Amino acid sequence: MVNFDTLEEWQTQTSLLLQARPTTTRISTKYNIPNLEAPRYNAAKKRKRDTEGKDGDAAPAPAVPRGTFTLKTFDPVSGATLKFKTDKSADVGRMVAGLGRAGRVMAALPEKAEAPDVAMEDAATTTGMTLAEASKDTSHTAPTESKPAAPAAAKKKKKGKK
Amino acid sequence: MASGHISNGEFFTQLASLIEKTQKKGHGSVHLTQKRLSYETTAAPSKDDPLADLNPAAPLPILVRVSDGNTQSQDRVKNKDPVKFATVVQADELETFFARYAEVCKVGMQSLRKRDRSKRKKTKKGGAKGAEAKG
């Protein structure tokens, strides 16, 4: 069993496991609010002798049960278990988005959503880069070669580069 | 399955009420499970073709189950009627389903730690997100 510290790690490992075993892998989500009256939360209080002297410390902490949200990917065939646990409500949206992404892999749909966006961004940045380079090239070549044939040469150079 | 699958809309109302019930009770769990619905499909791995499920011809539906985890009472006796329901999500409805799913979870799960707005530290998350967008 592996416990991950970040959601991203869990996400990548889960999608890898899903790609390998899409039929048997399942993803469970658990929302848990602990029962503060359960014996395991009250075990420490039984040691009277230690706490008797200092009453101030023995005052009960504000007993607000803190819920947790756990993601677990499990494949019964290989026995692989991947877990990620959080107690922040800010993570819930991202985690369910992760579930949705994993769901696409499960349903054998092609991964999308971000893929086209990234491609677009990349395309935009690369074209931007080439334009910048091109302008640089011309600015470099223009002052050194003042002959009328210069722009044509520069153009040829660029074509060769591409 | 004895009770059968319920529709997606019904599923969300039941899920919301289960989360609310747990929240009011003050303790307990809500279990959600999702897996590929491979029942009665040809794309199941077998001995002859152990990798048959890797590239199915058509997208498969997904089964989502919910339970409150109380399958046994405290003295290890089987719970006669546990809270348990399931729904099938078709591949083309996945996006809307998970959007609603996120909504129900965010609204219902009030015991999680809220974002601390009083003393805001330098947000690491913002940096991480920026890195993601770049890479």
Automatic annotation (TrEMBL), chain A:
<feature type="region of interest" description="Disordered">
    <location>
        <begin position="110"/>
        <end position="162"/>
    </location>
</feature>
<protein>
    <recommendedName>
        <fullName>SRP9 domain-containing protein</fullName>
    </recommendedName>
</protein>
<dbReference type="InterPro" id="IPR039432">
    <property type="entry name" value="SRP9_dom"/>
</dbReference>
<feature type="region of interest" description="Disordered">
    <location>
        <begin position="38"/>
        <end position="70"/>
    </location>
</feature>
<dbReference type="GO" id="GO:0005786">
    <property type="term" value="C:signal recognition particle, endoplasmic reticulum targeting"/>
</dbReference>
<feature type="domain" description="SRP9">
    <location>
        <begin position="5"/>
        <end position="106"/>
    </location>
</feature>
<dbReference type="InterPro" id="IPR039914">
    <property type="entry name" value="SRP9-like"/>
</dbReference>
<dbReference type="Pfam" id="PF05486">
    <property type="entry name" value="SRP9-21"/>
</dbReference>
<dbReference type="GO" id="GO:0006614">
    <property type="term" value="P:SRP-dependent cotranslational protein targeting to membrane"/>
</dbReference>
Automatic annotation (TrEMBL), chain B:
<dbReference type="GO" id="GO:0008312">
    <property type="term" value="F:7S RNA binding"/>
</dbReference>
<comment type="similarity">
    <text>Belongs to the SRP14 family.</text>
</comment>
<dbReference type="Pfam" id="PF02290">
    <property type="entry name" value="SRP14"/>
</dbReference>
<comment type="subunit">
    <text>Component of a fungal signal recognition particle (SRP) complex that consists of a 7SL RNA molecule (scR1) and at least six protein subunits: SRP72, SRP68, SRP54, SEC65, SRP21 and SRP14.</text>
</comment>
<dbReference type="GO" id="GO:0006614">
    <property type="term" value="P:SRP-dependent cotranslational protein targeting to membrane"/>
</dbReference>
<protein>
    <recommendedName>
        <fullName>Signal recognition particle subunit SRP14</fullName>
    </recommendedName>
</protein>
<keyword id="KW-0694">RNA-binding</keyword>
<keyword id="KW-0687">Ribonucleoprotein</keyword>
<comment type="function">
    <text>Component of the signal recognition particle (SRP) complex, a ribonucleoprotein complex that mediates the cotranslational targeting of secretory and membrane proteins to the endoplasmic reticulum (ER).</text>
</comment>
<dbReference type="InterPro" id="IPR009018">
    <property type="entry name" value="Signal_recog_particle_SRP9/14"/>
</dbReference>
<dbReference type="GO" id="GO:0030942">
    <property type="term" value="F:endoplasmic reticulum signal peptide binding"/>
</dbReference>
<keyword id="KW-0963">Cytoplasm</keyword>
<dbReference type="GO" id="GO:0005786">
    <property type="term" value="C:signal recognition particle, endoplasmic reticulum targeting"/>
</dbReference>
<dbReference type="InterPro" id="IPR003210">
    <property type="entry name" value="Signal_recog_particle_SRP14"/>
</dbReference>
<feature type="compositionally biased region" description="Basic residues">
    <location>
        <begin position="112"/>
        <end position="127"/>
    </location>
</feature>
<feature type="region of interest" description="Disordered">
    <location>
        <begin position="109"/>
        <end position="135"/>
    </location>
</feature>
<keyword id="KW-0733">Signal recognition particle</keyword>
